[in-house]
């Protein structure tokens, strides 16, 4: 047997082994997909992909071959994502609002292969997951301009769902109108009150009349249906495309740092015992009715090695002058030191719940 035949025989034998390993890998990938499906997790996990490439590329000492191996790994992961996406085509994702609203945009970017289901309010979207009608829901928890979304924070405290991921969506407001209109034609703008407020300086400078709508997507639909060149909506670029409107002027909101944090809620909790500093945790609790209880709770969190990013109080609607507390910390509350922290907190807290542990939030581009 000559060298060429010998090499080809070796490749054939290796290819056979690789086919068997490929099947094993894709079956394992399917299990990962089913896990993500049950917890409302998106297919793409940038952090995990980076870890796989970083750790496995070390196994190839030859620098020239390592470059090809990284490409091979990326191809394998791309195939795995495609396979997992098939599973998520049946995923039902609830959101509050209508098609084209910012919640719709966030849900669509997190779950591009999911079936998006519109609900009229936050509680209805949340309860659709509790009842099993939907697999997960995407709800806003905070806006950098307007602050926390109190209704959703209250659902975290009262409800049973878990947060398995938080995503940042930059909110850019644009002037959009019907085909053939121009910026100078516009006399009236229609949008959600918050969007109108975010663009107040622009509106005042142009001397425009304002009309309020329930959300920016409905404003765009109204303008499209009206067909008046003098009336425009203030909404996102995605919404303009959805309703066949033209961009008349981009980024008219006065504060460019306008971002909304969206959380994905599901019935199952994503748990890991790894003490990972790249993770975040959300806790809600009430403290005992005794002097210094809150100060003790805050001290315990700090002494346990958790950096507290956020501490907020929320009134308990049915109990006058009583409050619960919402806390975000850097770190995994399910780790060993997290369990020790929770045990210590039980000495000063009446009620304590981990709402979720998840990787640091992702920007939705």
Query: Class by helix and strand content?
Result: alpha/beta
Poorly predicted tracts of residues? none
User: What's the shape?
Assistant: globular
Helical content (DSSP H or I, runs of 4+): 40-55%
Could you give the order of the helices and strands?
Answer: HHHEHEHEEHEEEHHEHEHEEEHEEHEE
Count of DSSP strands: 16
Report Rg: 25 Å
- Residue fraction in strands: 25-35%
Main sheet: strands, sense, barrel: 7 strands, mixed
Terminal-residue CA separation: 56 Å
- Helices, by number, come to 12
* Oligomeric state: single chain
Mean pLDDT: 89
Key structural traits:
365 residues, 27% strand, seven-stranded mixed sheet, five-stranded mixed sheet, alpha/beta, 12 helices
Summarize the structure.
By secondary structure, the chain is α/β, with parallel strands linked by helices.
Question: What does this 3D model show about the protein?
Answer:
The chain is of the alpha/beta class and 365 residues long. The chain is 42% helix and 27% strand. Strands 1, 2, 3, 4, 5, 11 and 16 form a 7-stranded mixed sheet that branches. Strands 8-7-9-6-10 form a 5-stranded mixed sheet. It has a 4-stranded antiparallel sheet with strand order 13-14-12-15. Helix 1 crosses helix 3 and helix 2 runs antiparallel to helix 3. The longest helix is centred in the N-terminal third of the chain and has 37 residues. It starts with a helix and ends with a strand. The mean pLDDT is 89.
